[in-house]
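Case study B.
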Amino acid sequence: MTFNIKTIGNNIDEEGLKEFGTDFAIDKVAENEAEGFICRAQNFHDYEFSKKLLAIGRAGAGFNNIPVERAASEGIVVFNAPGGNANAVKELVIAMMIFGSRNLKPANKWLSDQMGTDKSIDLAVEKGKKAFAGAEIAGKTIGIIGLGNIGSRVANDAESLGMKVLGYDPYIAVERAWEISSHVQRVTSLDEIFAKADYITIHTPLTDETRNMYSAVNFVKMKKGVVVLNFARDEITNKEDVLDFIENGTIRYFATDFGSEKFYHNDGIFVTPHLGGSTAEASLNCTKMVAHSLERYLKTGEIINSVNFPRVRQAMLTPYRVTLINKNVPGVVARISDAVAQENINLANIVNRSQGDFAYTLLDLDESDESKVEALVGHFKDSENIVRVRVIKK
Ligand SMILES: NC(=O)C1=CN([C@@H]2O[C@H](COP(=O)(O)OP(=O)(O)OC[C@H]3O[C@@H](n4cnc5c(N)ncnc54)[C@H](O)[C@@H]3O)[C@@H](O)[C@H]2O)C=CC1
Ligand SMILES: O=C(O)C(=O)COP(=O)(O)O
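Model:
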């Protein structure tokens, strides 16, 4: 069987797409004919998914552009590429922190406005440069909100650049915690970050807790002259409040990957056009990662790196595998087992895992009679609690 994958939007790494095996066709059919999508930050909130679509690979980290709960309810598994672009974001954040500390935006603007000969400009430079004398980051305190793939890397590098590092992440994954330098001090309150840090950077998803975190209610708690960075998501920042707190001198410099017309001409603000994950390396990594996840899911039903379904790994050793996406309500597994028994099929293995309102069930059938497998699947069609059934032949 050939699976059709459609790349949505541009910037999907062509080299990365070569990871797909020969039984995958890329961009050969219309969107509503594809079993899999690969996308980046395109907004899918108003998108009507076709019944054929089984999986979406977000070639990046943040997935707030995809309605992941609706996708689950329509039987669509959404994957992302955790860590695939983390180094790219980290490097930009470190660069922007130093860029701001050394006043490079106004300094460069001032320099480009100079007129005259090289000699006269050299004289003006030596006289005028004191206006742009900056500060070093070594010895300063950085507060990092979110210590996942990006935040943990920023923490380790900031520490090796001589900074004192405070990290806040109430949901930190155990394996990530092991990767963070023991010199990074874990704090349990955001207010401690706001009160102590000279530099503050956020590396969390956009959630109800982080939306608007950069706003007046928190800016008033920050040190005068703080440098604030947002390379996570636009909606974390209240832009009017940033302008006010630049104006009153609380924020010395604000760097962000998410712009606004009011930001572009402000000397205290530096905006990059959502470039955090835009490197050749990150784009290759992320495309490869989601290509692997999609291929594995479509061919074997295994789920790795999904954001709306639990991880399910199970080697396929039987002639048939049936996978079901079902509502996470009581009685479904019993019904599935009953149906298997009614069709007199030997069940070699059953895996059932839930996440939120939905669950994923994988049945390995020790049965090579296709008609019996079809009869089994017949039990699950048109059931209000089962939203997707697939049969995978070894
Ligand atoms: N500017 C860009 O191009 C890019 C932006 N991003 C953004 O950065 C975010 C983080 O990316 P990764 O580090 O790769 O994700 P990740 O999932 O590895 O890490 C996120 C961390 O945030 C923590 N967290 C969640 N809610 C929190 C809260 N309320 N307070 C403190 N910590 C909290 C989690 O426990 C986790 O450790 C993404 O969700 C995305 O929005 C990611 C990649 C590129
Ligand atoms: O990975 C992320 O969360 C990003 O924000 C990067 O977005 P992009 O893939 O560059 O459209």
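The pocket of 2-oxo-3-(phosphonooxy)propanoic acid (ligand 2) is lined by residues 40-41, 60-62, 85, 276-278 (CB under 6 Å). The remaining cases will be described in the next quarterly update.
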